């Protein structure tokens, strides 16, 4: 647990970088500090491990006032990952990852074992351990940075734009991998970024700061996107706020429409009535065992509905997909619906644009 109580940082030249900042990061949570350049994110983070000392206020890590803790001891319990990872260029990947264990005086065997384990945990191939930092890609270097920060298994991690130096696709992979890792290791993390999308993906909660280090809003991504506290936050979230919100809501949150369901063997008149009752000019064809066969315009039917009448749905979603994904596939759907299917292809109903829009309200 990390707590800030009315923390102020005024630099000697009079710049107030952080003003009256209070928050807490419960154990095992990621708090993202986000805001425009110069809003005091890095200053706030560096006060946690005493790289910068607060002018006033109280910062505690696991109940202990950081200013009353020996800095070296404090930092042993705090892993630190930065964008320019600062790997030692003349040391191998393995040596870099083993830095802290060596400082702590671990036996060589134990260090080697831990390094081997971490190389795998952060998704690096084992043979990369013998390379030097300049022989790695940007994404691989970032992974080494994360591995090094985790080496001595500190309960707290500080991450300052840790994935900032790589292209958006690699960044996406690193974010995903890191969240998978975090689900296992459950560190208490303060994560700094200027990128709102990264904040939304990474944060259990997000703190949005404005220039002068003034906290504007602190809440879960879902709540912030649904209800920005003020005009500053609204503007910071940008014009795509609603789309960003949709990305966080799973398809399972909306009750799928039953839809004009017809079994093979139904005659055309009955199928037409079912379509009309649902207000459509087409039917969904679902087999007796509830597997989706496809759909058909009523006018294409002849006699009884058969499997051969079914054309595949152009848009398919799963319960765990986001409404953003649903909206993306809906755009390409000729009958304006996405069919929601279960894991084994069972019919779970229809998702429409109206249902997606309603979910935002
Ligand atoms: N040593 C210093 N002396 C005076 N002012 C400083 C010092 N370090 C930072 N500042 C100022 O404090 C404010 C906050 O800086 P900080 O680096 O914490 O912002 P940030 O939100 O991390 O910015 P960025 O996203 O650009 O890294 C800025 O106005 C900066 O110019």
Automatic annotation (TrEMBL):
One CC-aspect GO term: membrane
Keywords, sorted A to Z: ATP-binding, Nucleotide-binding, Repeat, Transport
Highest rank taxon of the organism: Bacteria
Keyword tRNA processing: no
InterPro entries in alphabetical order: AAA+_ATPase, ABC_transporter-like_ATP-bd, ABC_transporter-like_CS, CBS_dom_sf, Gly-betaine_transp_ATP-bd, P-loop_NTPase
Keyword Repeat applies: yes
A UniProt-annotated Pfam family: ABC_tran
One Gene Ontology molecular-function label: ATP binding
EC number: 7.6.2.9
Gene Ontology biological process: glycine betaine transport
Boundaries of every ABC transporter domain copy: 2-236
NCBIfam families noted in UniProt: proV (TIGR01186)
Family named by the database record: Belongs to the ABC transporter superfamily.
Protein name according to UniProt: ABC-type quaternary amine transporter
Organism listed in the record: Euzebya pacifica
């Amino acid at each position: 647990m990390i707590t800030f109580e009315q923390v102020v940082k005024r630099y000697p030249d009079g710049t107030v970088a952080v003003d009256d900042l209070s928050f807490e990061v419960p154990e095992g949570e990621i708090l993202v500090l986000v805001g425009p350049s110069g809003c005091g994110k890095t200053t706030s983070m560096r006060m946690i491990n005493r790289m910068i000392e607060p002018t006033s206020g109280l910062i505690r890590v696991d109940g202990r006032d950081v200013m009353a803790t020996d800095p070296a001891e404090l930092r042993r319990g705090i892993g630190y990952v930065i964008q320019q990872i600062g790997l030692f260029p003349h040391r191998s990947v393995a040596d870099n990852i083993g830095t802290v264990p060596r400082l702590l005086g671990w036996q060589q065997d134990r260090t080697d074992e831990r390094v081997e384990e971490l190389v795998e945990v952060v998704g690096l191939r084992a043979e990369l351990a013998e390379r030097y930092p300049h022989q790695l890609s940007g994404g691989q270097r970032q992974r080494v940075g994360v591995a090094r920060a985790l080496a001595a298994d500190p309960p707290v991690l500080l991450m300052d734009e840790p994935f900032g130096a790589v292209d958006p696709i690699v960044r996406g992979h690193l974010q995903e991998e890191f969240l998978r890792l975090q689900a296992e290791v459950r560190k208490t993390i303060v994560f700094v970024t200027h990128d709102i999308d990264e904040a939304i993906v990474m944060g259990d909660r997000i703190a949005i700061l404005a220039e002068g280090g003034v906290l504007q809003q602190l809440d879960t991504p879902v709540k912030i996107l649904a209800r920005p506290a003020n005009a500053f936050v609204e503007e910071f979230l940008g014009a795509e706020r609603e789309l960003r919100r949709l990305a966080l809501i799973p398809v399972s949150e909306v009750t799928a429409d039953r839809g004009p369901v017809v079994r093979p063997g139904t005659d055309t008149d009955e199928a037409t009535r079912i379509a009309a009752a649902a207000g459509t000019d087409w039917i969904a064809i679902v087999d007796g065992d509830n597997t989706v066969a496809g759909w058909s315009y009523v006018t294409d039917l002849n006699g009884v509905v058969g499997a051969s009448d079914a054309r595949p749905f152009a848009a398919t979603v799963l319960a765990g997909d986001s409404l953003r994904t649903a909206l993306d596939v809906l755009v390409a759907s000729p009958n304006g619906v996405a069919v929601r299917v279960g894991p084994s292809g069972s019919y779970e109903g229809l998702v429409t644009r109206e249902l997606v829009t309603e979910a935002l309200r």
